[in-house]
Amino acid sequence: LLLSFNLSANDPFEEVNRSIYKFNKAVDESFARPVAEVYDNLVPSFIKYGITNFFDNIEEIDNSFNQLLQGKPGYAVNDFARFCVNTTIGLVGLVDVASSLGLDSHDEDFGQTLGVWGVPTGPYLMLPFYGPSSPRDLVGRPISGVLSGTFSIEESDVRLSITALDALETRARLLDVESLIVGDKYTFIKNSYLQYSEFEVQD
Predict the structure, then answer these.
(1) Which terminal residue of the chain has fewer beta carbons within 10 Å of its beta carbon, N or C?
(2) pLDDT at 153
(3) What is the rounded distance in angstroms from the CA atom of residue 132 to the CA atom of residue 18?
(4) Model confidence over 63-95: pLDDT tens digits?
(5) What is the 3-state secondary structure (H, E, C) of 24-89?
């Protein structure tokens, strides 16, 4: 049902986007996916869950800030409370204690905030290495990146290591959903991205 809409009008740069998609696919098949498979097969589940929780936790400040900007102070308090609980009782975020206390998780970023403010998504973009994006999300990503906390780490080698681990953890989580992709993969990914972005803006 979610993928029944035709969003081709949002892709005026399709020829270039498809070329970049092919490049990204080649990089993924030769490097990112094999590494993610090794990580997924060798790392125990409880460690993988802890890493996922850790990265989810450091994004709670970004969530809280954007909840305020979107006029949702109740959700902002909820998300900041999640950060406080999971950072302390949850061992720097490795354990999601907050969810068991009834503090629900949300996913907000500055790109969504711009959408709530009425800024249009703009044309669909496929970026080298990064993947699906849009002009609105390109503007919002640096602000959310700073608020996520990783850019505040002064040691560049530590910051790069954390960023690489975040990318690896994200790629590993996508292994389970690849079987859902049907038909033209480029179109499927494009429609999924655009519709998910709209879904998030509309809560």
Answers:
(1) N
(2) 62
(3) 11
(4) 999 999 999 999 999 999 999 999 999 999 999
(5) HHHHHHHHHHHHHHHHHHHCCHHHHHHHHHHHHHHCHHHHHHHHHHCCCHHHHHHHHHHHHHHHHC
> DSSP characters for 140-180?
HHHHHHHHTSGGG---HHHHHHHHHHHHHHHHHHHGGGGGG
Could you give the CA distance from residue 54 to residue 75 in angstroms, rounded to a whole number?
20
Q: Which amino acid belongs to residue 45?
A: S
Tokens 């308090």 -> residue: 77
The pTM of the full predicted model, rounded to 2 decimals, is: 0.85
Residue listed under structure tokens 């999601």: 96
Residue-wise pLDDT for 92-137, tens only, equals 999 999 999 999 999 999 999 999 999 999 999 999 999 999 999 9
pLDDT of residue 3: 44
Which tokens is 169 given? 């953890």
Going from the C-alpha of 168 to that of each of 1, 43, 171, 188, the distances in angstroms are 30, 12, 5, 22
b vs e for 166-189, b when ≥16 Cβ sit within 10 Å of the residue's Cβ? bebbebbeeeeeeeeeeeeebbeb
- pLDDT grade for 50, boundaries at 50, 70 and 90: very high
Is 59:71 a contact under the CB 8 Å cutoff?
A: no
| Residue type for position 173 | R
Which 3 state secondary structure label does DSSP give 186?
helix
Tokens of residue 60, six digits = 């709670």
